[in-house]
UniProtKB/TrEMBL annotation:
This is Aminopeptidase. The keyword Lipoprotein applies. Pfam families: ERAP1_C, Peptidase_M1, Peptidase_M1_N. Residues 271-492 form the Peptidase M1 membrane alanine aminopeptidase domain. Residues 569-870 form the ERAP1-like C-terminal domain. Keywords: Aminopeptidase, Glycoprotein, GPI-anchor, Hydrolase, Lipoprotein, Membrane, Metal-binding, Metalloprotease, Protease, Signal, Zinc. It is found in: Cell membrane. Residues 50-241 form the Aminopeptidase N-like N-terminal domain. InterPro entries: Aminopeptidase_N-like_N, Aminopeptidase_N-like_N_sf, ERAP1-like_C_dom, M1_APN-typ, Peptidase_M1, Peptidase_M1_aminopeptidases, Peptidase_M1_dom, Peptidase_M4/M1_CTD_sf. Its cofactor is Zn(2+). It is an enzyme of class 3 (hydrolase). Residues 1-18 form the signal peptide. It is a lipid-anchor; GPI-anchor.
Amino acid sequence: MKGTVVYLLAASVCCALAGPIDLLKTSDSVEEISPRAELAEYRLNDDVMPSHYDLTLTPYFEDEDTHQAFTFDGISAMTFRVTKPGVTSIVLHMWKINITSWFLKLSSDSSDVPHGVESYDEETHKLTIPVNQALAENTDYLLIFNYVGLLDDDMHGFYRSYYKVDGKKVWMASTQFQQTHARRAFPCFDEPRFRSTFQVRINRPSNYKTFSNTPIIRQTPLSTGRYQDEFAKTPAMASYLLAFIVADYEVNEKDGMGILARREAMNQTDYSLQSGIDLLKAIETWIDYPYSSVPEMTRMYMSAVPDFSAGAMENWGLLTYRESNILYHSSDSTSLQQQRIAAVISHEIAHQWFGDLVTCEWWDVTWLNEGFARYFQFFGTALVETKWDLALQFVVEQLQGVMQMDSLESTHPMTHNVYTPAQVSGIFDSISYNKGAVTLRMVEHLISTEKFKNALRQYIKERAFKSTRPENLFEALNEHGDPTVRDFMEPWTVQPGYPLVTVIGSDDGYSITQQRFLVNNMNHDDKSTWPLPITYATKEADFENTKPTIVNTTTYKITVTKPEELSYFILNNQQVGYYRVNYDADNWAKISKALHSENFGGIHVLNRAQIVDDLFNLARADVVKYDTALEILDYLQAETEYPPWLAAVNGLTTLSRRIHHEDDEKFAKYIVQLFSKAYALVKFNAPTAEESRLFTYLRINVLQWSCNYGNAECKKAALEEFVRFYEKPTEKVHPDLRQVVYCEGIRQGTDEHFDFLWDQYLSANMATEQILILQGLGCAQDREQIFKVMDAITSDDIRPQDKSTAFSYLLLNPYTLDYLSEYLRTYYVRWANAHGSYSNVASAFNNLLARMKTDEQMWRIRSFAARNEQVFGETAYKSIESGVEDYFVNKNFTEKHRAVIGEFLDKALSKSGAEKVTVGILTLVAVVVALLR
C-alpha cells in the first residue's frame, strides 16, 4: 500500500509556495555552444540609425491558395539615416525569414539607390546590404523587404498558439520578441539602443481580431475576404517591445485598461482588470510620470496567451502573460496565485517606465530594466495590497534566494558582458532580477525612501525616450542622496558574489572582517571586498534602525560598553545588507538562548529568517559545524512566523538531498517532530477571512512538509478530503488546500483516483488549476502512473510551456527517480523530439543525478550515456559527465557530514520519543484501507 511508506521530500517546494517565481521571463532555449564568430561580430555598429518601420503582416492558419498554413507574408519599409560620412553598407538583423525581394530608395522621391548583392551570416543573424557609393548624411532612406516567415510553435518571434473550444483547436498568433526575436518577424536593428516608431497593419481573416501596442485607427475590407487593421503609430521604442496578437479574443475593459482573453476565460479577468487599474495609478503616482504622458499610450491592454515562454512581457501598451499569471477566479485560484498575478502585473507595469520609456542600452546591464521591475513587483504591489506583508516576503524570496546562485564560482556580476543570443538569454537570471532589486533596496535604506523616490523621478524624466547606462542612474542617486552613493552601489554591480562578515567579540566590543562567500570553496584566495552597510542590534528596539554606516575597510571595530552583559549582538538589521554573518561561539550561544526564549528574545522576524538561512549555508560551507547549526535551528519548533519557516524550508530542502539514504527514515521522523507544533498551530483547515495572508502561506508549507514526511493526522485529513472530492466532484477542495490534498490523494490512492485527477486536468478551464493538478500527479509512486505522466509530457496533452514544470514536480518526489531514469533511458528519442534536442535529455538526466543517492542509480545513467555518446552528441554527453561529477561531489559531502548529522538526529529524536511517528504511520494504514475500500 503506497500510504504506508514515509514520503521523503528531495527537492525544493518553496518556489511553488513562496510567491512569484524567480524569473518572469525565463531564458530562451538557446543551446550554448562555442561561438563561431568573434564576439564583437554579434553586435551592430551605429553607422545606421533607423527611425521608423511600416509593417504589413498577413498570417495564415490553414493552407490558402499558394500559402502554407502557419506562415505569414510580410512587407517591411524601414526609414533610416547614416550617422557619419563614408558609410557604404547597411547591416541589420534577420532570422528564420525568407526574403523574396528588397529595394533601397531615397525617401524623398522613392528613387532607387544603386546597390550590390546582399549577404547573410547565419551565425550572427546579420544581413549586409552593400551600396555602390557612400550614403549621404542627414538624408532619409527607405529599405523595403518582401518576405515570408514562419508561425512556429516555439513561443518566440511571431508564433502560433491555440486553445480548445468544444474539444477542437482554435489557432491564434502572438509575439515574444525579447531578447533577440523581433528579427524573426521582420528585418530590423534588433538591439535595445535602436529606438524607432512603428506603424503596423495586419491583414486578418474575417473571423479574427487583432491587437497591438496602440489602438486600431482604420479597418479596411480587402478583396481576399480579409480585413486590414491599421494601428496608430507607436512611440519611439526598441524593437523587442513591439507586439501584436491575431486571435478571436474578447476584451474586458474599463478606465483605459483592458484584459484580452479567449471567450471561455472572460469570467477570470475581473481581478486582473481592477488590479491593473489600481497598480497603474499607484506606480505612476510614485514615479510622478503619468502613463498617459506618452501621447501614443491612450490605453493599456493585458493579454492572456495560452502558450507563452516567459512569465509575462512588458510590450508597451500590450502586455502579454501566461494564462496562469493573469487569469484568476476566487473559487479555483489559491491565495498565492492571486498574489502572483498582482505581483506580475506590477512588474510589467513598472516596465512601462523602467524598460520601455527608459531602456537599457544593451543587455549587459539588463538589471537596469529587470532589477527595477522586480523591486516594484514587491514594493509596487505593496502600495495597493497593503496587508500582504510583501516587504517581509521580499527578503527570503529575493535576497536569500539569489544568494544561493551568487555563492557559486560560476556566478557573474550584475553588469556583465554578453554578445551572442545564448549569452543574452542567460543574463535574464536571478542576478539581474533579484540581486538588482536587492541592491536597489540597500540604496533606498542608505539614503531614505523619499530621497530614493526623488532620485528615480529625476532619472526617469532625464532619460525618457533614451537608452541608459548605470552611470546615468548613479548620477541621479548622487544628486538626491549623497555624493558617495555611486561609490557604495557600483562595486555591488560590477563584482560577482557577496561577502561573509565574521564578528568576533572582545572586552570592548566587536571586530568585523569580510571575505567573499563561496559555499563550495571557502579556502579561496579571492581578495574582493565590498562597501558594507553596517547596522546592529543588541535589543528588540534596535532592529528598527536600518540606516547603515558604510564600512570601506577590510576590518572594522564596533565599540560597545560591557559586551559580556548583552543578550546578543546581531548584525544587519532586517537583513537590508546583502551579506551573510558568522559569529564567534560565545555570540552564537547567546543568539541560540534568545531564540529559545520567550518572544525569541525580541529578535526581529527578518533577522530570525536571516539566522536560519545563514546557519544552513554556513554549515554547507564548513564554516559552522552541522551539529551547532542544527541545535540552534531546533528553536524552529516554537516558530510561528512565515519568513523564518520559509528560510527553513529552503535550507531543509537542500539538506534532505544530502541525507544518506540509510538515514532517510530517521530524517523523516525528525521533520515530523520539527513541524509538529507548527502543524498544531495552523491545523488542516481552509483559511479564514480573518487570518493574515502570511499565516495562510505558513499553513501551506507546514501541511505539505508534514504530510510529505509522514504526519499521520495530516495524511489522514488530506486523504479524506480527496476521497470526498472524488465521490462528489462538484464539491471542490478549497484552493489553498488543493496542493496537499491532490498530492496525498495520488500518493495513497488507486489507479481510479489517478485517472480521475487526470480527467480533471484535461477538462480544466483554468491554467492555475492545471498547475495544481500537475503538482498532485507528480506525487505518484506507481511505475505505470509515473510513465503516464511522462507520456503526457511528451505529448500534446501538456502544453509546451508546462512540460518542464510537470517534470519538475515529478523530480520533487524521490520515489519517481528510478522510474524517471528508466523512462528516459527507454524513450530518450521521444523526449528529445518533444523538447527539441538531446541537450534537453541531458538536462533531465542531470536533474536526476542531482537528487540520486546511490552509485547504482548513477551508474545506470552514466553507462547509458556512454553507450549512446554518438547519438547525444558531444555537448549533451559532456553535460551528463558533468552531472556525474556533481553526483560525486554530493556523495562526498553526504559521507563527510553523515556522522555529525546522524548524531544530532539521534539525540533530537531520543529527547522527544519520536517512535510515536512510526506508530502514527501504522495507524494510518488502517485508515487508508478503510477509505479506499
